[in-house]
Amino acid sequence: MQGLADNKSVEKGGIYVTNRFAELAGIKKGETLKVTPYQDSKSYSFEVKGIVTSETNQGAYIRSETFEAAGGKFNPQTLLVDKTVSKDDIKNDQNILSVINKSDQEKNAYDFVSSLMSVFLMIIGFALLLVIVVLYNLGSLNFVERMRDYATLQVLGFSKKNLQLITMIENLMSTSIGWILGIPMGIWFLRCYVANFSTIRIEYTAYITWQVLLIASALVSVTSAVTTLIISHKNKTINMVEALKGVE
Question: pLDDT (tens digit, 9 = 90+) per residue, 118-136?
Answer without folding.
Answer: 888 888 888 888 888 887 8
